[in-house]
Amino acid sequence: MTDSRPCQLHPQSMCPAFGSLRVLTRLEGSHPVMATDTGCLYGLTFVTHFYGARKSILAAHLGTAELMAGEVVENTRAAIEVAAQEPGCQLIPVVSLCVAETAGLPEEMLPTRVGDAEVVLVRVPAYAIHSHPEAKDVALAALLRRLGEPEGGERDAKTVVLLGEVFPADPLAIDGLLRRIGVEATIALPGRSIDDMKRAARAGALAPLHPFYKETMAAFRSWDIPIVGGAPVGMSGTVSWLKAIGSLLRLDLEQVNRVAEEERAQAEAIIKAQPLAGRVIVSGYEGTELAYARLLAEAGAEVPYVSTSIAADPLTLPDEMWLRNNGTKEIVYRKSLEDDVAALDKYPPDLVLGTTPFCAIAKERGIPAVYFTNQLASRPLFLSGGMAATIGFIQQMINRSERYEWIQTFFEEEDFVDQGEVPLG
Q1: What are residue 207's DSSP bridge partners?
Q2: Which domains occur in the chain, in start order?
């Protein structure tokens, strides 16, 4: 008997390690060295530049001959020496992938510092990491454990670390709102500044905007820095989040409540002005799918099904419980394409927010579909401003259903199928 269950031994996507490289290459003064075979090197450097790294990645030549001769360590050390000569080099992350010969790269045989640059081994066993967001977590945690400076100064009691790679305008908007309730400074991680990583270890609180930074949160716990649950998404989520920060940092609760209620009123006005109507399926591998689904449901959409590539975590529980109490019937972690297609059959939607292959299947059926990463993760999400941007875009997409149905009908025309030609008239 054939087992029809989808394979869960590997991610149904490209190598997740590019998430780590995305974090490491964007740091100013960072010059990564990759320890892996030529195939992995080619694929990951291509994708990294596609995502705007604007930086070369150095690598030892590790072909079959070098791997068989046991020259991995020597060649990697040589690449580190070259990286250290790059102008302004302050950090050399050595990325060891899951190639058998390099996955066990002995850290004690690598230098810890070359010239002015710290050398940090970042182990990214991509076969054991199921999504590129979680690979970001691995890289960031490795850097923080090495670079964080919890000692040597007083704790910045009213500084909040915002944890999550988000739309560039979001941290600015959140910072402005937090300053209104008494927060003195925010640090956004992962970011471009090595100094921010050092300062983060003395912050007053950590606020994970995304729920998948498990190793990074463990580093902050080791520094006795408290963690704020939830995220400022939607109406109720934002109010709860602001009040939690105010309580944790012992801010003026009257001022916190005033600002929170003002933000609630703005969100209510946005929903009243442009309420959503329609059924939406939300699926992706960014790790933010539950938060987006909650925002859409709060704005009036029906969201029967949500899936994500990340694993279940205590930080996802508030959004999960809220969704289940507000009409969501299925929430799938570590999802597969097969899970999503089954949901498409079970809950025929007006719009799909999904991965590339899932969107393709939906479009074949004449259903409007949007690639989650490029179209949603590249837009504001947080606070009332993010809500306004998201709701307007989603309603526009739902309103395109007739166009998608026309396209489907066009390509199903009998003459078109038989003749293999596009009718011009």
Answers
A1: 162
A2: 18-129 (3.40.50.1980), 156-267 (3.40.50.1980), 274-408 (3.40.50.1980)
Torsion sign (Cα): 323, 373, 268, 384: positive
pLDDT tens figures, 305-344: 999 988 898 889 989 999 999 999 999 998 889 999 999 9
Which residue, chain included where needed, has tokens 């790294």?
53
The CA distances from residue 207 to 155, 156, 319, in Å, are 16, 15, 16
Rg, Å, the chain Cα set: 24
d(CA 252, CA 374): 39
Task: Please give the backbone phi and psi of residue 369, each rounded to the nearest 5 degrees, phi first.
Answer: -145, 145
Residue reference for tokens 């729920």: 211
**Cα 143 to Cα 50, 85, 105, 163, 335, distances in angstroms:** 23, 21, 17, 14, 29
- pTM for the full model? 0.87
Q: How far apart are CA 133 and CA 137, in angstroms?
A: 7
CB atoms near residue 221 (< 10 Å): 12
For residue range 100-148, what is the model confidence (pLDDT) as tens digits? 667 677 888 889 999 999 999 999 887 788 788 899 999 999 999 999 9
One-letter amino acid of 87: P
Instruction: Compute how many other C-beta atoms are within 10 angstroms of the C-beta atom of residue 116.
Output: 11
Q: Which residues contact 324 (CB under 8 A, 6 or more apart)?
A: 331
Using CA atoms in the order 41, 46, 48, 50, what is the torsion angle rounded to 10 degrees? Answer: 180
The order of strands in the sheet holding 369-371 is 330-332, 302-308, 279-284, 351-354, 369-371
